[in-house]
Design goal:
With 230 residues, the chain is mostly beta strands. The chain has 3 helices and 18 strands. Strand 1 and strand 2 form a beta hairpin. This is Phosphodiester glycosidase family protein.
């Protein structure tokens, strides 16, 4: 385990599967505070880095135990899809059907509402009227109800460092960042079979990173940033 002290609910572990090392954060919504951040309320500009978010939350007495990037974003550090903070929609739902990994349909939304979390396909989410507290749209979906994305195959040749989030059978949320390049198929299988997550969403590729109180692997700025704090 890395980055967590005794008595703290979030677990940050390194797990090896099929020869690839992954950093995995397991979040218990009953004890951990999981939140999404984009704009610094003081400056109105994107935080950009884990350290800026950590410093801001520290001023209000929160200790950030884990942070990672949220979904894919556009130039200017703007979320490419839905971004909800504190129940406020700061960026709208994106229904694009073309344009990179985001439009490798189906894509989806990772959302939190109270002690509930979910990964939901975009059009299902649109019809459901969930009104979450926090939400981020990205794509493609890695796993949906235990089924891998139909475009993934074992022999896929696109290998990148990847990050994602899953809602798992034990009710916990798990974020994962690969320590080496993997294809979509292997990453999705890791969520489903190793982490036990029947629903999982791809977050981003080569620039994906994470931070704990002792570690910060970030080397590029992000739009949305997820934090787990106590």
């Amino acid at each position: 385990m890395i980055g967590c002290g005794q008595g703290e609910a979030v677990q940050v572990r390194q797990i090896t599967a099929a020869g690839t090392l992954y950093t995995v954060a397991t979040v218990d919504l009953a004890r951990d505070r999981l939140a999404l951040h984009w704009l610094n309320p003081t400056t109105g500009r994107p935080y950009g880095t884990f350290r800026q978010v950590m410093a801001r939350l520290g001023k209000s007495g929160q200790r950030v135990l884990f942070a990672t990037n949220s979904g894919i974003y556009a130039p200017g550090l703007k979320p490419l899809g839905l971004h909800v903070e504190g129940g406020r929609v700061l960026a709208p739902l994106n229904n694009a059907r073309s344009g990179g990994n985001f439009a490798l349909l189906p894509n989806g939304i990772f959302w939190i509402k109270g002690l509930r979390a979910g990964v939901t396909e975009t059009q299902v989410y649109r019809r459901a009227g969930l009104q979450p507290t926090f939400a981020s749209q990205s794509g493609p979906l890695l796993v949906e109800k235990g089924r891998l994305h139909p475009a993934f195959n074992r022999s896929g040749t696109s290998f990148k460092v990847r990050s994602g989030v899953g809602v798992c059978r034990d009710g916990r949320v798990r974020f994962a960042v690969s320590g080496a390049p993997v294809n979509f198929y292997s990453f999705a299988v890791f969520f489903r079979d190793t982490l036990g997550c029947p629903d999982a969403l791809y977050l981003d590729g080569s620039i994906s990173a994470y931070a704990t109180p002792q570690t910060d692997t970030q080397f590029a700025e992000f739009a949305g940033i997820w934090t787990v704090s106590r």
